[in-house]
## 1
Amino acid sequence: MKEKAPLDRSFPSTAEPIQKLVQEFSKLPGIGPKSAQRLAYFLLRAPEEQNRLLAEAIISVKQQTSLCIICFNVTDTDTCLICRNQERDRTKVCIVEQPQDILALEHTRIYKGLYHVLHGAISPTEGVGSNDIRIRELMDRLGGNPVAEIILATNTNLEGEQTAMYLSRLVAHLGIKVTRLARGLPFGTELEYADDVTLTRALEGRQEF
Ligand SMILES: [Zn+2]
């Protein structure tokens, strides 16, 4: 059995359910202790129905989603909405690190092809090798489908560049055009945080890799 993390006793005057909630909120990205407290007290005052909907949404986000069997985007059916859309250009596959990168690129509304989510990037320093991300699945996919171009849209940090380099070598013999998001994206950028204009420019100005 997993051991329970001890509750923070730095505010012994706070009721335990509040402490627990603050502790859970503090584990979320971008939430410091102050924000965690604010959220906990907000929920304490909120209507019970609203809190129940929030709790159910948190549970179902894990229970009712899985990964698309084609592109590994998050989906609530076998294949995701993008793979199912017959109007998408099936000759282009844009390769991203995380599902939320698809959201960022879709927001630009200029890309009409398909995606492939790697779920990470190659990082020797963190012990992430090519077998730890969805590269084999990508190669299987490229082998059986008429893909004319792959767009390497991994992040522009060291891991993203290494991954892009690795993939470009891997597909070199397949005769597929390989492009990389380039212009406008400064080194170190995480795609998820790039603004629409920068991302649109980077897509339009993608260069042969
Ligand atoms: Zn999909």
Note: The CA atoms of residues 106 and 112 lie 8 Å apart.
## 2
Amino acid sequence: MKVPFVDLGAQYQAIALEINSAIQGVLEKRDFILGSDVELFEKEFANFIGTSHAVGVGSGLAALELALRAWEIGPGDEVITAANTYIATTLAIMAVGARPVLVDMDPATFNINPAAIEAAITPKTRALIPVHLCGQPADMDPILEIAAGRNLLVLEDAAQAHGSMYRGRRAGSLGHAGAFSFYPGKNLGAYGDGGLIVTNDDTLAEKLRQLRNYGQRVKYVHTTIGTNSRLDTIQAAILRVKLRHLDRWNAQRGERAAQYNALLAGAGCEVPQIAANRTHIFHLYMVLAENRAEVQKILAERGISTGIHYPIPIHLQEASASLGYRQGDFPETERAAERILSLPMYAELTESQCAYVAENLREAIRITSDSRTQGAALAR
Ligand SMILES: Cc1ncc(COP(=O)(O)O)c(C=O)c1O
């Protein structure tokens, strides 16, 4: 059996007629830049998340960067975020000239540890970016409380969390703004790059609409230094179709995650846990396994593709050298980076594929731990 890591083909097959006609609609209207589907998608997505505004932009990275830029966060400012995020989060902070200040993760949820945020705050801190990693919302109540007490802005990085909930509210609607990515492999993925910011703040939404479009609201009247980062109309038309299926797809992912958890009980790896008052949309289903490289190799030999999110923590990346962090600064993040293994996860993953992955992972862990025990015995 072959089990890909994601299967965008299976998803397309299931909705091909709807997608093709949505694309055809744009070709007929030819409103390629900020066309009607962009406006409609923004309304529908804001409605889905529960915010008054949504502003479509060119990518998830742009969504984060433009929100920070709209808040005039820049040189001399600090922004606190999770050490174990995708590098886009810190690149956005660095792109506006501010300094990312990293905080270690809570090993139970892979999300930023709220208890460690307070110690990272300085007089320069302007904002917090909690990342809803893998699709499980960060623990927002303590984060929002810290932010309110210190007058800090909260930008949710919801790039992996389209539709997940914290105390009955959608991720992205809890802070001052939320940033989404529509990279093709995301739970709500376009057929190219795309991103979006949600907010209830009218002024912020208006600024973002100008920033994404050359700093203009009226054509050729440029009131601020903007850029070109607009959600593409064809992508918006595709996303409108996919949004209608999202809750069902997320529920299907949840079913497969529950199956993995049940089948992997006692297999010798740590499986994801869903914290109280949260839903998890399983953008990624990550386990922690010893001997990861060997386990991954055995799975690959058996036709199972896996991923590592992410193998080198941000603070140990060459691109972050200017931040001055060192090995040992974020022990939970570092420990996880050596063991994380993301298993195949998508709405169309079948029960039997899931069972095949779990069975082979269990066996791979047994084989690799046996060979390690034997190796240790021989070395003695
Ligand atoms: C947590 C996180 N933040 C930001 C991004 C950036 O999104 P994009 O690739 O659309 O720029 C991604 C995805 O790539 C992500 O996973």
Note: The chain is about 40% helix and 15% strand.
## 3
Amino acid sequence: MNTLFASFETITGLPEIISYTFFFLLGAAIGSFLNVVIYRIPNEESIVFPNSACPTCGKSIKPYDNIPIFSWLLLGGKCRSCHRPISARYPAVELLTALLFTVIFWQIGFTAFLPVCLIFSAAVVALIFIDAEHMILPNVITYPLLGFALLVRLIYPLLFGASFFSDFKIFPLNVLHEYPVWLVSLVGAILGGLIGGGSLWLVGEIWKRLRGVDAMGLGDVKMMFGVGALLGWQLTLLSIFLGAFSGAIIGVFLISRQKDKDMQTQIPFGIFLGIGSIISLLFGEHLVNWYLSMFV
Ligand SMILES: [Zn+2]
């Protein structure tokens, strides 16, 4: 993925630390916007109007009290008007997105693929937190994510070549030399989508037939169609593996703490698939190469 890498310093002549600070601050600002998305989308409210307001007293938040991370700390986690606590989730999402954007810049560098990774990760962060709170992955995010992935897979190879997509190097895309690059890319996207969304759908169907319960939400299926379309089949399998692995560990932990052992524990699997997808996007190729070098 780093084949088109150009350092920020060589392009702009500014020290690298400025670019890291920039992406940290950009992440904090985007995190602040994601808070609005996470709070309003499940309630089917507009994400543009009105301005942010205190969830308790409804008083609108002044711009100087809306500085990411900083304002929450300065106000001691309380609303300036009603002094009731404001959830630590708000600064947490801002800090997480800030750190994530910094890591993305560190990994992807100043390349054409950078905005794709930033947009993809921001959407996945919103999905993770909405799933954690409401156990849903809204269509208004998963459908545009799929559309975005398909568009990138169509346009990027034409403009920048195939170097950003690791599935071009592996079967079946690596044998499709005589076809146009955009077509090969779309085949990779569809294959990735089917591996991501299709495999989850199949597992859910089998589980439903066997146990009579809905184990897999359609939201997870739709999200993984988008993830799969962007990442290709190999990194998508890795995303599901990482998601299932971390989800199983957390799940066992939650069930062991549960008093009523017969109760069905619902785990918002989208959280773990989301985490797996971001790790896979940023470090997937390294992980796969490391794994292959160990065992093959
Ligand atoms: Zn208030």
Note: The chain has a mean pLDDT of 89.
